[in-house]
Amino acid sequence: MTKRSLPRWSELRPLLQMQPVPLDPVERRLARCHTVADLREAARRRVPRAVFDFVDGAAEGEVSLARSRAAFDRVEFAPAALAGFDEVSTSTTILGTPSALPLVLAPTGFTRLSHHDGEAAVAAAAAEAGIPYALTTMSTVSIEDVAAASGDGTRWFQLYLMRDRGLTRELVRRAKDAGYRALVVTVDTPVVGQRVRDLHNGLTIPPTLTPRTLLDISRRPQWWANLLTTEPLEFATLQAGEPEAHSALIDRLFDPAVTVDDFAPLREWWDGPIVVKGIQSVADARRAVEELGAEALVVSNHGGRQLDRAPTPLELLPRVAEAVGDRTEVLIDSGVRTGADLAAVVALGARAALVGRPYLYGLMAGGRRGVAKTIAVYEAELRRTLHLLGVPGVDALDGSHALLRAA
């Protein structure tokens, strides 16, 4: 029979140690976030529904979005026991520049919708973490102000080819003068995909006041206060005009008739590396290398935001890497949500991955500190994965460490 007795204070005292509760609400909120999924939930609670859906959603039935993420569930790792590594390295090089992680913060449009500090906060967090950040043509902070915010950080500039080639050339010149190191040319957006959530929410840039947005003000007063008391939300690199649906704006500005020949002037305007983003077939990967001379390419379905039911990047990655990986650096985006995913894409042939939604969740949840938290989550998860795989570092990963199980 079990003998019972009342516990002594000396036995209770170690059990009653209280963890200090941060007084800062942002710090307190981020302390509860241990994964990108946690940051997503924190973000959902902080911003108006139309803003969250703009970031979180995708095109049409969102099939590509779901498939991109589901593909990572099929990754199977092959760990090595008794590997004998006390420390592991998460660092690598991307386009010849050191990076603390095989991770690039991807270009995302309308970033000040997520937080009033927008791209400046993202660039600063990336620079502090030692990873590249790609600023979009559709930025809400200027090319020059983002450069100032990121200091000596690695900056790329993402370019859409505009109907107005004079504007296109001017954007390239400004990026060059501001010290951006690579030009990322996106080729999967002749027209914008139909984002059904945005249509249902009546999203415009900048937001317009309607009965629905007025209701949102009552639910998210801090977000609206920040929006209404800081600089007007507009495209810092473009003269966009009156508020309109973002799809109409893009279709008005972007050139849908771009061909291979349109890349020739870019080589005259830009003397650094060119990255071709939006590769969705082995044939196009070869064209990017052989006809465009791309120093890197991104296997991407635009996060599922363009053509729904497009190829799933992770499934395409090994074939692209085999076809052109010895001639150019292969990058990937879409569905990369964990540090283990970073290890998987490198093992399957990528130099690094680009992520967009995850850091925007962090930005919505906590501004610059939220972006830093997102990067820290990836770093911790990647480091743990390398240890568990028995691999000394990112650059030691190869096809022997991961495979894609059959669907």
UniProtKB/TrEMBL annotation:
Its cofactor is FMN. Signal peptide: none annotated. PROSITE patterns: FMN_HYDROXY_ACID_DH_1, FMN_HYDROXY_ACID_DH_2. FMN binds at P107, T108, G109, Q158, T186, K277, S300, D333, S334, G335, V336, R337, G356, R357. Keywords: Flavoprotein, FMN, Oxidoreductase. The keyword Acyltransferase does not apply. Belongs to the FMN-dependent alpha-hydroxy acid dehydrogenase family. PANTHER family: 2-HYDROXYACID OXIDASE 1, S -2-HYDROXY-ACID OXIDASE-RELATED. This is L-lactate dehydrogenase (Cytochrome). It comes from Ornithinicoccus hortensis.
